[in-house]
Each structure stands twice: as C-alpha cells, then as structure tokens.
Amino acid sequence: MPKREDYISWDEYFMGIAMLSSYRSKDPNTRVGACIVNNKNRIMSMGYNGFPMGCSDDDFPWDREGGEYDTKYAYVCHAELNAILNARGANLEGCKIYVALFPCNECAKAIIQCGIKEVVYISDKYNGTPGNRASKRMFDAAGVKYTKLNVQSENIVIDFKTENI
User: What DSSP line would sit under 89-121, residue for residue?
Assistant: First the structure.
C-alpha cells in the first residue's frame, strides 16, 4: 500500500498550530496565535494574544474604544511576544515564527531582538499603516525574511471522534 499523498506541508502544519493556539484567546474581536519553530522543524514555543499571567481576563477591559486605560490595548500581550516569553529564555536564534496576522512594530522589535530570522503569516490586513510599514522597515534592515503563506486548502478539520483515529 502506498503512503498517503494528501498530507499537509510543514508550513501548513505549523500555521495550523498557530491558528489552533489562537482559540485560547478570550479577545472578543481578534484571535491571534503564534508558533516558533527551529531549523529542525521542532516547536520551541507557542503563544496567543491575552492578558499577562495574574491579570484576570474578567477584571481587565476588552473594549477597543475609549481612553487607553479603559481599553485592551494597554494590557493585552500579543501572540508573538507571548510565544517569545513562553520560550523561557530558550535560544531562538535562526528560528521561524508562524503567525496569522503580520506582526505589529512592537512585536517586530521582539522578533528581531531574540534572533528569529523568518516570519510566516497569512493576513497583512494592516498593510500600509505606519506601524506595519515600521515593522517591514525594521525586518528589512535586520535581515528578517517575511513570507505570506499560500495554503493549499482554506481549512483543516480537527475531528475528536475516537473512531476516526
């Protein structure tokens, strides 16, 4: 019997893990996950957007509009930064980060500083904004490659039924 031919690529696999991680986010508007992988296709860390440990998501605001103190923006840690911090000091030099949404300029700084050399993303919905342009400018200057992932299929279904295992 020949092997299956319809398996997913490494890029689809790691992006799928990033997307699955995003389902841990409690943000009512934006769910983002990230997965950091070394050059041997080993997962180094994962993260999703949410509040820092010890900051209850019931006690802090999820609002998008209002004063900075009263919106999520002053408190939420983005998926990329969470993945970097969750690595707990592991050497991320030369790694790749998979993230659904192109990184903001603040996350771009952290990605560069920890030595990640490639960003793989799906959406660049903030393309052309000052923060997005700053991210790309820094990535270009630091030699960080960024690649839009072209997926073969729009979705992958995860089936938890034991009879399908």
Answer: T---TT-EEEEEEPPPHHHHHHHHHTT--EEEE
User: pLDDT per residue over 140-159, tens digit each?
Assistant: 999 999 999 998 777 888 87
Q: What is the pLDDT of residues 91-102, one digit of tens each?
A: 999 999 999 999
- Work out whether strand 33-37 and strand 118-123 pair parallel, antiparallel, or are unpaired: unpaired
Asked if 154 is an active-site residue, the reply is no
E strand spans, the chain: 33-37, 43-48, 96-101, 118-123, 145-148
Direct distance between the N- and C-terminal alpha carbons of the chain, in angstroms, rounded to an integer: 19
Catalytic residue among 12, 80, 93, 118: 80
Alpha-carbon 133 to chain mean position: 18
Contact in structure between 80 and 103 (CB atoms under 8 Å): yes
CA–CA dist 30, 19 (Å, integer):
12
What Rg do the C-alpha atoms of the chain give, in angstroms? 17
Q: Is the pTM of this model over 0.90?
A: yes
Give the SS3 label for residue 51. Answer: coil
